[in-house]
Amino acid sequence: MARYIRHAACFCTLLLVALLVNAARVQVVQARTHGENPANRRETIARYGRERGDILVGGRPVTGSRDTEEQLRYERTYTDGPLYAPVTGFASQEYGTSFLEHTEDSVLSGSDPLLTPFPLWNDFTRSRNPGGNVVTTLNRAAQKAAFRGLGGRKGAVAAVEPATGRVLALASSPSYDPAALSGNDPRVGRAWARLNGDVDKPMLNRAVRQTYPPGSTFKVVTAAAALDAGVIKDVDAPTDSPEPYTLPGTTTSLTNESEGCEDLSLREAFRWSCNTVFAKLGVKVGVRHMTATARAFGFNDNALRIPFSVARSTFDPTVDKAQLALSSIGQYNTRATPLQMAMVSAAVANGGQIRTPYLVERTTTDDGDTVATAGSRPVRQAMYPATAARLKELMAQVVTEGTGTNAAIPGAVVGGKTGTAQHGIGNSGTPYAWFVSWAQGERDMEPKVAVAVVVEDASAVRGDITGGGVAAPIARAVMEAVLDSRY
Amino acid sequence: MTKAGTTVAPAETSAPSVRLPRRRGIELALIVLAVLLSVYGYCAVGLAKNGSVPPDAAGYGAGLGVLALIAHGAVRLRAPYADPLLLPIGVLLNGLGLVLIYRLDLETPGDRAAPTQLVWSTVGITLFIVVVLMLRDHRVLQRYAYVCVAAALALLTLPILFPSVNGARIWIRIAGFSIQPGEFAKVLLAVFFAAYLATNRNALAFAGRRLWGLQLPTGRVLGPLLTIWLISVGVLVLERDLGTSLLFFGLFVVLLYVATGLTGWIALGLLLAAVGAFAVGWLEPHVHIRVEDWLHPFASIEAGQGPNQLAQSLFAFAAGGVLGTGLGLGHSILIGFAAKSDFILATAGEELGLAGLAAIFLLYALLVERGYRAGLALRDPFGRLLAIGLASIVALQVFVIAGGVGGLIPLTGMAMPFLAQGGSSVVTNWAIVALLIRVSDSARDQYDGKETP
């Protein structure tokens, strides 16, 4: 019998070996596959198991974390949520993340391998890093001035530092509080439905994700193309411009808001924003050169990230002459984001060079050690430096004695360009009020800020909606805020 | 009692020169270690979940320690030659089970299973003490073989009269207590099988005709085998209890093989089992679902219904990896309602890792090995078969449940010995350890001067 007992013991050993092999199979071989299964809640629980890192503006966090002691433990909180929503986006247990919360998620949630003290440290200790912080380039005062200036009207403001490309303000209105989307109770679902159903689209980031016809502000680009191509050699020489201007190949006449534009010089036409002069100028420059200049300023670029993606601003290269004439004054198919127009203004202020805009200065660990910095950004020559110098002069003149006097700041050099963009079928919609500008304080070596403002207010009296009247004061407030801050 | 005790303790009349070491001191040391390990685990859970040592840690430790020490005293008194590993393994597994159940209690406020489990552990250890003190010689049990099988069948059929719980009809509820009679039936059936086979093994092995090189037994002795097979399948169909029927059948086949050494029997047994399992697996919906889940554990995820319990169990094991998350730091609550009973091993796998799981398997393996060792050393066939039968119950049960929750075989609702929440199970397993103590005492006692090996 002893022999059979030994056989039975062997059988039991076999069962034990099978169990051990199976345990190793599940716990070692398949561990990663199971861990990554989307139905496995552990990754989600771990993700919300510790406080999320913060997004910093001017050295102070604009975000926070609240301990709910639920399974998904920490919820996102926001200080001044609506003010910073176009930058932070939301971080929701239910609906994921957007904008900086999305692009910087690995740092904020602590999953970025760069946050570990030593390589493979976390794999060994099975620990997770505390969430890191994201330091933005935003200027607190400028952001507040921009949002307050919009005052709930539909519109957006983008401001950049011309020499570096740092984004100083990025405001969109109407806005929303991303805190309403934090957590996972039923109120979050209701807030989501309400925000998505709102006709005013408060979750739309108008500064970077919405394109508008830029109207007369696009004349900066047309003027740069004309000067660079040598079509205009002397800004004070009269141009051969009829009024009204019949669009080539059509019977349509183009007129001006102001009178006396006939044969005006580029300087005067820029100051009074003559459509006829610039439409004809665009045709003379030609579609190839106009497109090349627009592209150098950043139009037709799909790839811009700041670090979240920016909608493509367009200048249509397949137009006929009549369409080119309209395109050259910022109508027809020409569309631009407010950030794109701020870049146009910044290029003028920065000697013709465009710095790629960026919003994240650096990322740090939770105790402030730098993990990554923005690094050097690519530079692009949008126009000759001499052309930029001319345009600077022309833009300054618009503020001192043209359509943009509302943007003047005592003791500072300010350049600007107004725009009133018509849109809708047969131009039936309320025009968009534009203003692009830059400013240089009296003790500054170079312009400190370039701004673009668009207001699509539907309630204002139509005659009142001109860039100079509505948008310029907002731009001035933002520029003043930047010039006043010393850091 | 004292007088009777001296008469059954041959050590006092034998020659000291051939006396085997009793090793009771080692047993005591191991018991203390087992209790300390359990208290340590209890404190670790409290520290991980609440940041403080649980206030009742000392009480739990003292309760388990006092019970274990009394049991140890009983062994010293009545089974001085018993294997010194059996009792400490029981204490450690029981203590670890209490830790895991307490840990899962913390996730489900209002459902405090650990105190109940401690009460049942007390009942179990008390039964252990009673068996060790009262049962002087295991051979007495042979006389009650038919009483045992009658009681076992009665216990098995009893739950049919009660409503089913979670699809299985294996519980009876009396005055708020729920008892799983199938658990007790296991021990009774092991006694019956051992007795029956010890008596009939020659007839089974050598009588009857030969057919295709296979020695067939006579119908008179073949009858019980078929009866047991039919009962096991019947239990399964009526009570929807795949695990118990598998266990009974496996136990019988193992004992039959050990008793007769006929490989043909095993082949026949496996054939019958395969036919039975196949038929039931396809015809009985409750079992069919289990088989489907085993083959496709993530089908419910793909169907958009979220992970089922088996998938959650696999996720828990995988999350543990090699070293585990640490006690109290896993998320095994995701497994759902059976986390403290059927799926408690998943919590062990997640929080103690492959290392801890392997340690637990090895503890069971050691328990089984000690049972087999006692069986090998014994002289009487009944004692041998009883030891092998009891050890095999533990081995088969561990394999069936651990294989089930680990995705190796289809899932059956069985309780992990000592670890899982469940009164009947804890009490039964303490009875098994008590009987193993008794037979191992006899096994080592035989050599004590009276007989030469």
Major sheet of chain A: size, sense and barrel closure?
A: 5 strands, mixed
Shape of chain A: elongated
Strand order of the largest sheet of chain A: 2-1-7-13-14
Low-confidence stretches of chain B: 1-17, 449-453
Structural class of chain B: mainly alpha
* Shape call of chain B: globular
**Tally of helical segments of chain B:** 16
Strand-pairing-aware structural class of chain A: alpha+beta
CA radius of gyration of chain A is 28 Å
Strand proportion of chain B = under 5%
The oligomerization state is: heterodimer
Taking all residues together, what is the mean pLDDT of chain A? 89
Number of strand segments of chain A: 18
Distance between the termini of chain B: 30 Å
The greatest interface here is: A-B, 36 and 49 residues
* Share in β-strands of chain A: 15-25%
Q: Average pLDDT across residues of chain B? A: 84
Q: Strands of the biggest beta sheet of chain B: in what spatial order?
A: 1-2
Number of E strands of chain B: 4
